[in-house]
Design brief:
The complex is a heterodimer of chains A (about 300) and B (about 375).
Chain A lengths: L1 E4 L2 E4 L7 H28 E5 L2 E4 L3 H7 L2 H31 L6 H10 L6 H11 L6 H8 L10 H29 L3 H9 L4 H29 L3 H6 L11 H11 L3 H27 L5
Antiparallel strand pairs in A: 1-2, 3-4
Chain B lengths: L3 E9 L10 E10 L4 E5 L6 H9 L6 E6 L2 E2 L5 H4 L1 E4 L11 H11 L4 H14 L15 H13 L6 E5 L7 H18 L2 E6 L2 H7 L2 E6 L2 E6 L1 H6 L4 H6 L6 E4 L1 E3 L2 E4 L2 E4 L12 E5 L4 E3 L7 E2 L1 E7 L3 E8 L2 E8 L9 E4 L5 E4 L2 E3 L16
Helix pairs in contact in B: 3-4, 3-5
Classes of the chains: A mainly alpha (about 300), B alpha+beta (about 375).
C-alpha cells in the first residue's frame, strides 16, 4: 500500500505469515532436485573417505589443494580462453546473420528451419560428426585442408584441435544467437524504421540507435546462455578430442570428470565442482547486473 | 513548405487490381495549399493512412502522381521529399538524450554543429522540454515522447510538410488538449503544411483549417469545419460529423416538398422531379424541434432520452425510422410528440450525395451525375 502525504511516499506492507505455506511445495521439489544433491557434493568436498561410511572431516583442505594446483589453473585458463573466443565470434556473427535474414516472405521459414537444424542434433552426435569430418585422412574437412596445402591434423596438433573445436561450437551454437537476435529484430515496429528513414539516418545509424538498443535484452539472454553453455562444455570436445592432444583441450569439465571418475579423487573433484558452480554463478550475476544497469522495469 | 498536388491518384495493395473493390484508394485529384492545416478524417479502413503514406513517400501509389510545388515526387523517398512524419506510437531513440534525439535529423544531414545546437535549444524551449534536455529519452512519459517525435520534424525548418498519423492515440485526454493547442501554435508560428490523420472528429475539427472526410477509399468532402457541419455533401459526412450525427430519412421528392413515410416536409427550395435515385432527407438533430401549442407537425413516438448536460438528446421514431432531436436544457417535452424540420437546414441526398436545388427557371445547376 502506498500512502502519500506532504510529498513523502510511505510504503507499508501487509504481513501475513501464512504465505509461507504456499511456498512449501516448491521448496520440497527444489530441495529434492537441487539442494540435496548439492549438499552431497558439499559433504564430499570437506571430508575424506577410505571406505564406505568412514568419513574424516578435512575442512578446507581440498579447496586449498585445488586452488593451488597448476593443473586446475591451466584447465581454468583454457576454459576462459575458449569461452572468450566463443563469445567473441558467436555473438557478433549471430547478430550479423540475423540482420541479413529476410524480414518477410517465403524465405523466412526456410532460413529459420536451416538455422534450427544444428540445434536439434544431440551433442555427442555433433562431436562424433566433427570427429570424422575433420579426420585428415578420410574426413572432408581434414582431407580438404591438407589437399589445399595446410598441414592439418587435429589429433596431433594442439592448434588444429582448438581450431576444430571452436569451428564445431560456432557451427553448433551460432544459430541460437541468430534465432534470439532475429526474434528481437522482428519485434521492432515498422514505424521506427520509417521514422529513421525520414530523419535521414543511414543503415549504420539505424543499427546503432534502433536495432542494437531494441535487441539488448535478447542479446543479454544470448550472452548468458552462450557463456554458461560454453563454460560448462563437455560432451562435444570429449567426443572430438577427449581433451587432447596431451592436455591441450582439457577444459574444466573434462578435468573434473578425470579427477572424479578416472582418478577417483572424490574430495578434490567435489571441491572443484563447488568452485566451478560458484564461478559460473558469479560471472552470470556480474554480467546480468552490469548489462541491466540503468534499465527501467 | 510546399503546395501538394494529388494527380489522378489511386492505390491498391494487390499487385493486379481488377475491380473497383480492390482499390484501397479510389482515383482522386486534389490540390492542397501551401501552409494549410488539413485533417484527414474517416473511420478505420477508409484509406486515410494509405493516402498519408503515399504523400510521405513510404508507399508508392499504383497509379497517378504526387506533386510538390511542380516537382513530381511520386517515386521519391521520404528523405528526398523532405517531409516529417509523426506516428501513432511515439518513436524515440532510447539510448539518446532528449537533446540528442532532436539533433539527430540535423546531424544526419550534416548541418553545422553550432547551428544544430541553436535549433535544438530553441526547439527544447518551444516544446517546454528544456529542463529534461539531458535526460535519457527512454524514461519520459508518452506525451513527452510524442513531443520529441514532433520536435524532430520541426527542427528541420525547411520541411515541405509535416504529416501526423493519429498522433494523440496514446496520450491521456488531459494532455491531448495541451498537445493539440501546441500543434496549432506551432502551425501558426512555422506555417508548415500540416496533414493530420485521425478518426476523432473533435481532433480534426479543432486542428484543421480544412477537413478532408474519407469514406471507403474516397474523399467525400473537403471543407471547413463549419461547411461540414452545415452543408454535408455526403450522407456519411452528415452521419460522421456531429454528435449525434445527422438524421437520414428515406423520402420522396415532389417540387419543394419531401415526403417521409407519407408526411410532407417543406424544403424551402425546388428540386423538381428526381428519377431513379435512392432519395434521402438529411437534417441535423439541432435543426429539428418539437411542436408547441396547436402547431401542426409530424407525429412521432418516444424511444429514449439522453441527458448530456447542456442539452438532451431525444430519440424518437417517425413511422419505422429512428431519429434524434436535440432539446435545449430546461425545456419540458410536450405530451403529444410531433416534430417540425427547419426548412433552410434540410438537405436532399440522391444515392448518398447532396442534391443542389433547381433555380426558379427549373434549370438544373448542381449535382446531377447520379441520376
Amino acid at each position: 500500500m502506498i500512502i502519500r502525504s506532504w510529498g513523502i511516499v510511505m510504503i507499508t506492507k501487509t504481513i501475513n505469515q501464512k504465505a509461507w505455506l504456499l511456498v512449501l511445495p516448491v521448496l520440497l521439489v527444489v530441495s529434492l532436485n537441487a539442494i540435496i544433491p548439492l549438499m552431497t557434493v558439499v559433504n564430499y568436498s570437506i571430508q575424506d573417505t577410505f571406505s564406505p561410511g568412514v568419513f574424516f572431516f578435512e575442512g578446507t583442505k581440498w579447496y586449498q589443494e585445488v586452488l593451488s594446483s597448476p593443473r586446475f589453473h591451466s584447465a581454468l585458463g583454457r576454459q576462459l580462453l575458449y569461452t572468450g573466443i566463443i563469445l567473441l565470434i558467436e555473438i557478433p556473427l549471430g547478430v550479423a546473420v540475423a540482420l541479413a535474414m529476410p524480414r518477410k516472405g517465403p524465405w523466412v521459414s526456410v532460413c529459420l528451419v536451416l538455422m534450427a537444424l544444428p540445434l536439434l542434433i544431440p551433442w555427442n552426435v555433433v562431436g562424433a560428426m566433427w570427429n570424422i569430418f575433420a579426420l585428415p585422412d578420410i574426413g572432408l574437412l581434414g582431407y580438404g585442408l591438407n589437399w589445399l596445402g595446410f598441414d592439418y591434423n587435429y589429433t596431433q596438433q594442439p592448434l588444429a584441435a582448438w581450431f576444430t573445436i571452436i569451428l564445431m561450437d560456432v557451427w553448433h551454437w551460432t544459430s541460437l544467437v541468430v534465432l534470439l537476435a532475429y526474434a528481437g529484430l522482428s519485434s521492432i515496429p515498422d514505424a521506427y524504421f520509417q521514422a529513421a528513414k525520414i530523419d535521414g539516418a543511414g543503415s549504420f545509424a539505424v543499427f546503432r540507435y534502433i536495432q542494437l538498443p531494441k535487441m539488448k535484452r535478447v542479446l543479454i539472454i544470448a550472452l548468458l546462455l552462450r557463456f554458461m553453455d560454453s563454460f560448462m562444455v563437455y560432451t562435444e570436445p570429449f567426443v572430438l578430442t577427449g581433451g587432447g592432444p596431451g592436455n591441450s583441450t582439457t577444459f574444466l569439465s573434462i578435468d573434473l570428470v578425470k579427477a572424479a571418475i578416472g582418478e577417483f579423487n572424490l574430495g578434490i573433484a567435489a571441491a572443484m565442482s563447488i568452485l566451478y558452480f560458484l564461478m559460473t554463478l558469479l560471472v552470470c550475476w556480474v554480467f546480468y547486473t552490469v548489462m541491466m544497469r540503468g534499465e527501467d522495469s | 513548405m510546399a503546395q501538394i498536388k494529388i494527380d489522378r491518384l489511386a492505390h491498391s495493395y494487390y499487385a493486379k487490381p481488377e475491380t473497383e473493390e480492390d482499390f484501397a484508394l479510389k482515383e482522386m485529384d486534389y490540390l492542397w495549399d501551401d501552409g494549410g492545416a488539413y485533417a484527414l478524417l474517416g473511420p478505420s479502413g477508409c484509406g486515410k493512412t494509405t493516402l498519408l503514406n503515399i504523400i510521405s513517400g513510404l508507399l508508392v501509389p499504383s497509379r497517378g502522381r504526387i506533386i510538390f510545388d511542380n516537382v513530381d515526387v511520386t517515386t521519391k523517398t521520404p528523405e528526398e521529399r523532405n517531409i516529417a512524419q509523426v506516428f501513432q506510437f511515439p518513436v524515440i531513440y532510447d539510448t539518446m538524450s532528449v537533446a540528442e534525439n532532436l539533433a539527430f535529423p540535423l546531424v544526419n544531414r550534416g548541418i553545422d554543429r553550432s547551428e544544430v545546437g541553436r535549433r535544438v535549444k530553441d526547439m527544447l524551449e518551444t516544446l517546454e522540454l528544456s529542463a529534461k534536455a539531458n535526460h535519457k529519452a527512454r524514461g519520459l512519459t508518452a506525451d513527452e515522447k510524442q513531443k520529441i517525435s514532433l520536435g524532430r520534424g520541426l527542427v528541420r525548418y525547411d520541411v515541405n510538410a509535416i504529416l501526423f498519423d493519429e498522433p494523440l492515440t496514446v496520450i491521456d485526454p488531459q494532455m491531448k488538449w495541451q498537445l493539440r493547442t501546441k500543434l496549432k501554435e506551432l502551425h501558426e508560428r512555422f506555417e508548415h503544411t500540416m496533414i493530420y490523420v485521425t478518426h476523432d472528429q473533435t481532433e480534426a475539427l479543432t486542428f484543421a483549417d480544412k477537413v478532408v472526410v474519407m469514406y471507403e477509399g474516397e474523399v467525400v468532402q473537403i471543407g471547413t469545419p463549419a461547411e461540414l457541419f452545415e452543408r454535408p455533401r455526403h450522407t456519411f459526412v452528415g452521419y460522421f460529423i456531429g454528435s449525434p450525427g445527422m438524421n437520414i430519412l428515406p423520402c420522396e421528392i415532389e417540387g419543394n416538398k419531401a415526403f417521409v413515410a407519407g408526411h410532407s416536409v417543406d424544403l424551402g427550395a425546388n428540386y423538381g422531379p428526381v428519377d431513379g435515385a435512392r432519395l434521402e432527407l438529411g437534417v441535423r438533430p439541432e435543426f429539428v424541434r418539437f411542436t408547441e401549442g396547436v402547431e401542426a407537425g409530424i407525429p412521432v413516438s418516444l424511444v429514449s432520452v439522453d441527458d448530456v448536460g447542456r442539452h438532451r438528446i431525444v430519440k424518437v421514431r417517425l413511422a419505422q425510422h429512428e431519429m434524434n432531436v436535440i432539446v435545449p436544457e430546461g425545456r419540458a417535452l410536450p405530451d403529444k410528440l410531433a416534430v417540425v424540420f427547419d426548412a433552410e437546414r434540410c438537405g436532399v441526398y440522391a444515392n448518398s450525395h447532396l442534391l443542389e436545388p433547381e433555380d426558379f427557371d427549373n434549370q438544373v445547376v448542381g449535382y446531377r451525375d447520379d441520376y
